[in-house]
Write a structure and sequence with these properties.
The complex is a heterodimer of chains A (about 210) and B (about 400). In chain A, about 35% of the residues lie in helices and about 20% in strands. Chain A has helices at about 10-15, 35-40, 55-60, 70-75, 100-110, 120-130, 155-165, 190-195, and strands at about 25, 45-50, 65-70, 85-90, 110-115, 170-175, 195-205. Chain A is globular. Chain B is an alpha/beta fold. Helix content of chain B is about 35%, strand content about 15%. The model of chain B has no long low-confidence stretch (mean pLDDT about 95). The chains are: A alpha/beta (about 210), B alpha/beta (about 400). The interface of A and B includes residues 53, 61 and 74 of A.
Chain lengths: ~210, ~400
């Protein structure tokens, strides 16, 4: 598990981005919360990959199509363009070969949705600057030594990576800790400071 | 050596079983992979529950190597309860109040479906080794004839573990339009070299028994019980796991306080295995064991599809749920994962769960709560999708 359930303000945003009845692959689907939301609100044909056995068992017991696996090893088996949407929600920071994973996403999905916590948030910066310690927050509650999150990035870093893999960024949403869309209320240069997380909609290869 | 009562009972169950029987006459020959046809033949089967009006709730249960059609009712020879009553029954995940459940003895079996222990009408004697070699695909072909006979087009689900799981995979590959949902458990898309090796040990033990008589033991009125028992003992070890054996038996002695300094069954594990071997002989035919193990050995779905397992499932609409067990070293999680990857490559709907258990391969037959929750969740959601 790479995140806590009680603080998933990105899920509603992701659900909004998905078109009805799409074929969706949720990578790192955790306990199936997002897949269930997508099934009930968007009638999607949903599939999931989850690394934790407990999460998988929960999902399958809920009737979701989920397999035990991980983004680093299992994406290679999916054919090109086999999903309308491939979603990587709050999982990219837990992948080992992050760039390869993003490239695989773009290969498999007609669209990709990537949401990630923003390490550039002012509270993170303040913790490091003032306390001199690795940030631990409500949405990222792990200590440095037991975190599954091995590749942290800021909003700007993630954007750079999208450019590096030649992803066509179709939309960006940056969300405050209360789930408000900051793009509407703050100027662009402040997004990296104010966003608790960001949601990128990318266009995959045709 | 006079045949025991149980052996005689097993003999009569092979000819005229307590189950329902579907007869297939000369007009309905079964074409086998070996290139020959079998005719006439019969399939012995049990059913539980009621078929609904639109015939959409039929579930086929496929049994394992030494299983039988009595998955949820008393086995007539051993008098033991059905082998899958953990999963099948009223209110259970494979709910007899919701589904119409069919379980048939496999082709080549010895509980009433035509096999080497059956009487060959042409000779009036049991087939023995004159019975043609059958494959998993042949078993499935025979089952599809049974499903036709029951006037069912599409099965809601096909479910089975081990050799039963192989049949499930074969069903999905051979008759994709007839399988709405599939649950292959503790199985693989091919029999591994190690698995073939263990089977060969078992077969050699049977064939080395002087009572085997080149498979014509019934002519002699004997049973190669020692060989068959050894085959079962060897196989049984492969169904368990080292931690489970250690936990259950350790190095505990059987009915004694000290080592005998001889070759009696000093250890509990020896006594247990001997019992497993001798009780198996009462209910299973030695030749049938040869044929069943061979069918598993020959199973290789990738080989049958130009070397690509994914080809076996291309374009499938069947929803799959694969289950493996962490301590199963006969059909490992890696083998299930190979099937999952092949299914992913075809874009199939697939769930895959590895159940944490130290009980080895046999775990699929046992009361494993996570497995039960998995089967239940998957079947319920599939049933909703099918409108059952």
């Amino acid at each position: 598990m790479t995140h806590e359930n009680n603080d998933r303000i990105d899920l509603a945003m992701i659900t909004n981005l998905v078109t009805p009845e799409a074929k969706v692959l949720d990578i790192g689907c955790n306990d199936g919360t997002l897949l269930k939301m997508l099934e009930s609100q968007k009638s999607v044909d949903g599939r999931g990959i989850e690394i934790s056995q407990k999460g998988v068992n929960n999902c399958v017991a809920l009737g979701l199509s989920v397999i035990q696996g991980d983004a680093d090893h299992d994406l290679v088996y999916y054919p090109d363009n086999s999903f309308d949407f491939v979603i990587l929600s709050q999982t990219i920071q837990a992948t080992r070969n992050t760039k390869t994973v993003l490239e695989e996403l773009l290969r498999i999905g007609k669209h990709c949705i990537v949401s990630a916590p923003n390490f550039g948030h002012w509270r993170m910066r303040a913790q490091l600057l003032i306390q001199g310690r690795m940030p631990v927050t409500k949405s990222l509650p792990y200590s440095w030594y037991d975190t599954p999150n091995i590749h942290f990035c800021t909003f700007e870093d993630l954007k750079d990576l999208c450019h590096e893999v030649n992803a066509d960024i179709q939309s960006i949403n940056v969300l405050s800790d209360t789930g408000r869309d900051i793009t509407k209320i703050a100027p662009k240069p402040l997004w990296n400071l104010l966003a608790q997380q960001s949601v990128f909609l990318l266009k995959g290869s045709d | 050596m006079a045949q025991s009562k149980a052996t005689q009972r097993a003999h009569s169950e092979a000819q005229s079983p307590s189950s329902n029987i579907a007869h297939f006459g000369e007009d309905a020959p079964l074409h086998l992979d070996a290139g020959v046809s079998l005719s006439p033949f019969q399939i012995a089967y049990e059913t539980y529950g009621e078929l609904n009006a639109d015939k959409s709730n039929a579930v086929l249960i496929c049994h394992a190597l030494t299983g039988d059609q009595y998955c949820a009712s008393v086995q007539p020879i051993t008098k033991k309860p059905g082998w899958w009553e953990t999963l099948i029954g009223p209110g259970k995940p494979i709910d007899t109040e919701r589904y119409f459940i069919i379980c048939s003895n496999v082709l080549g079996g010895c509980l009433g479906t035509t096999g080497p222990a059956s009487i060959n009408e042409k000779t009036g004697k049991p087939y023995g080794l004159d019975f043609p070699i059958v494959t998993i695909a042949d078993m499935v072909r025979a089952q599809s004839m049974l499903v036709d006979h029951l006037q069912i087009d599409t099965l809601f689900a096909v479910i089975g573990g081990s050799m039963g799981g192989m049949q499930v995979l074969q069903w999905a590959a051979s008759y994709p339009e007839r399988v709405f949902a599939a649950i292959p458990m503790a199985t693989g898309a091919r029999h591994t070299s190690q698995n073939i090796a263990f089977h060969e040990v078992g077969r050699q033990a049977i064939m080395a028994d002087p009572n085997w008589h080149q498979g014509k033991y019934s002519d002699e009125g004997v049973v190669p019980s020692k060989g068959l028992a050894v085959a079962r003992m060897t196989a049984h070890v492969t169904y368990l796991s080292e931690p489970a054996l250690q936990r259950k038996f350790g190095r505990q002695l059987q009915d004694r306080d000290n080592l005998s300094f001889g070759f009696d069954a000093d250890f509990q594990i020896e006594s247990y295995l001997r019992h497993q071997g001798s009780s198996f002989v009462d209910r299973f035919d030695a030749n049938s064991y040869l044929y069943m193990t061979r069918a598993m050995d020959y199973f290789d779905m990738a080989e049958d599809n130009d070397g690509k397992l994914a080809n076996a499932f291309s374009g499938t609409n069947t929803r799959f749920c694969l289950v493996s067990f962490s301590s199963d070293w006969l059909f490992t999680t890696a083998e299930s994962r190979e099937i999952v990857h092949a299914l992913n490559a075809t874009g199939a709907s697939v769930s895959f769960v590895e159940i944490e258990s130290d009980k080895g391969h046999d775990a699929f037959l046992l009361d494993e709560p996570e497995m039960i929750a998995t089967v239940s969740g998957f079947l319920n959601s599939a049933a909703d999708a099918r409108g059952i």
